[in-house]
Every structure is written in structure tokens, then in C-alpha cells.
Design a protein that fits this description.
Elements lengths: L5 E3 L1 H9 L4 E7 L5 H12 L4 E4 L1 H7 L7 E5 L7 H11 L4 E5 L5 H13 L4 E5 L8 H6 L9 E4 L2 H10 L3 E5 L16 E5 L8 H4 L4 E3 L12 H16 L1
Parallel strand pairs: 2-3, 5-6, 5-9, 6-7, 8-9, 8-10
Antiparallel strand pairs: 1-4, 2-4
Protein name: 23S rRNA (Guanosine(2251)-2'-O)-methyltransferase RlmB
Pfam families: SpoU_methylase, SpoU_sub_bind
InterPro entries: Alpha/beta_knot_MTases (IPR029028), Ribosomal_eL30-like_sf (IPR029064), rRNA_MeTrfase_TrmH (IPR004441), SpoU_MeTrfase (IPR001537), SpoU_subst-bd (IPR013123), tRNA_m1G_MTases_N (IPR029026)
């Protein structure tokens, strides 16, 4: 987390949130007590700010200053409203291509995916506010600056975003090994949203129940799994191939 993109101190973080700053994630000392800390937690939940409990050692590494039990990272970008973005893309007359990241947690994977998304013409990336990778210095660096070119939306719930896309005539396809359908047999030459899962669990089972289609990549090795950013690249370039 770069120093210019962080706020430390409980009161400062509360005031930043109330002032409407784009707070990407807050790290809270897991054993911190007191009325001010209770107020911070209440504020985080009220404004649906992504936060996690961490040991004090992590906070000490993030800042040598008096953090008072909390450090926040400020997003270097402004996030987009999903309804407005979908409407803008549909009105553009281009074939829509969205990417949904379901609980992806690694900032470097996130950055790598954003970079590939920018190269393949993705119109927007949708992530959930809680539990998703932060947009921090690592994300910006790994994306090679693409994070400033691809619209990113933060939503309360991934499932609501999927319902909204489907209602807008956009087909949702989840990348999962829990299907017999090969990606190369799937029609990607249509208004589309591709859903990629987390590094360890894949796409949430409750999300798999509501998507329009499921598709997998063929695997011939003994490991039988790919890094999520690599798998995402394969899906996006197959989409590009079909659309070409």
C-alpha cells in the first residue's frame, strides 16, 4: 500500500468515509477496543466499506506512524455505477463484454486480469464490495496502468449484478470445471458477461445456480487447474476469436 494512498487513525478514517472518499479497504486491528473503534466498525458497515481484521504487526508494517488500530487504503480510481455503465455500453451499439470477478482476493491477479481485459476490449469489470481484492499500488503496477482505462464497478452483491445484466439482455457465462461444456463449444459472440471465481474456491455455488451458461477450459496436465488470471485470459481471447 503506497503511503500517498493511505489514511491512518480511526477518527481520520471515519471522517474520510463520511466525506465520501473512495475508500478501497480498511485494515482493522483484530483485538482493538474502545468507543471510537466501535464507531469506526459501525461506519464501515453502514457505508459497505470493505474491511478485514489483521494483527497489529501488519498495521505496523503498513505505517510507522500512530495508526491507532486502523489503516485505510484510498482507491487511486473512481468506481463506476453499474446501471449507468450498462446503459452507456448498450447505447454505444458495440457488442457488450463484461467481466465479473467473484471474490477474487489477490491484488496482483486483479491487476493482471485488468491488463488482459483492457487488451481484449472489456467494457467493464464488476466486483463485490466485500471480500474483493483492493485497487492498490500492486494492482496499478501489475495492470501496467490499464486500471485507469477499464471501468470498474463495485456492487453490494454479485448475484444482483448478474440479474441486472440478464435483464438487460446480456448472457452470463461462468468459468467452472463443474460442467461438461467446453469453452470452445460455447457461443461467446453475443452480449456477454464472463464470471471468474476466486483463486481457491472458484465461482460461488449460489452464483453458478443463476448464470445462463457454464463453461470450462480443457485440461491435459496432472495439475488440472490454471491461475485465475491465465484462465481469464483464455476465456477473453476465445471470446475475441469468435467475434473476429
Amino acid at each position: 500500500m503506497e503511503k500517498q494512498h493511505q489514511i491512518f487513525g480511526v477518527r481520520a478514517i471515519i471522517e474520510a468515509i463520511q466525506a465520501g472518499k473512495e475508500i478501497d479497504k480498511v485494515f482493522v486491528q483484530k483485538d482493538a477496543q474502545g468507543d471510537l473503534m466501535k464507531e469506526l466498525l459501525k461506519t464501515l458497515k453502514k457505508h459497505s466499506v470493505n474491511f478485514s481484521y489483521v494483527p497489529v504487526e501488519k498495521l505496523n508494517r503498513l505505517t510507522p506512524n500512530n495508526h491507532q488500530g486502523a489503516v485505510a487504503s484510498i482507491a487511486p480510481i473512481a468506481f463506476h455505477n453499474i446501471e449507468n455503465l450498462i446503459e452507456t455500453v448498450l447505447e454505444s451499439g458495440k457488442m457488450p463484454l463484461f467481466l465479473i470477478l467473484d471474490q477474487l482476493s489477490d491484488a496482483r491477479n486483479f491487476g493482471a486480469i485488468i491488463r488482459t481485459a483492457e487488451c481484449t476490449g472489456v467494457n467493464g469489470i464488476i466486483v463485490q464490495k466485500q471480500g474483493s481484492a483492493p485497487v492498490n499500488g500492486d494492482t496499478v503496477k501489475t495492470s501496467a496502468g490499464a486500471v485507469f482505462n477499464v471501468p470498474i464497478c463495485k456492487v453490494e452483491h454479485i448475484k444482483d449484478a448478474i440479474f441486472h445484466l440478464q435483464a438487460s439482455g446480456i448472457t452470463t457465462v461462468a468459468a467452472t470445471e463443474k460442467t461438461d461444456q467446453n469453452i470452445f463449444d460455447c457461443n461467446l459472440n453475443q452480449p456477454l458477461a464472463i464470471i471468474m471465481g476466486s483463486e481457491d474456491r472458484g465461482v460461488n455455488p449460489s452464483v453458478l445456480k443463476i448464470v445462463d451458461e457454464k463453461a470450462k477450459l480443457p485440461m491435459f496436465g496432472s495439475i488440472a487447474s490454471l491461475n485465475v488470471s491465465v484462465a481469464c485470459g483464455a476465456f477473453l481471447y476465445e471470446t475475441l476469436r469468435q467475434r473476429s
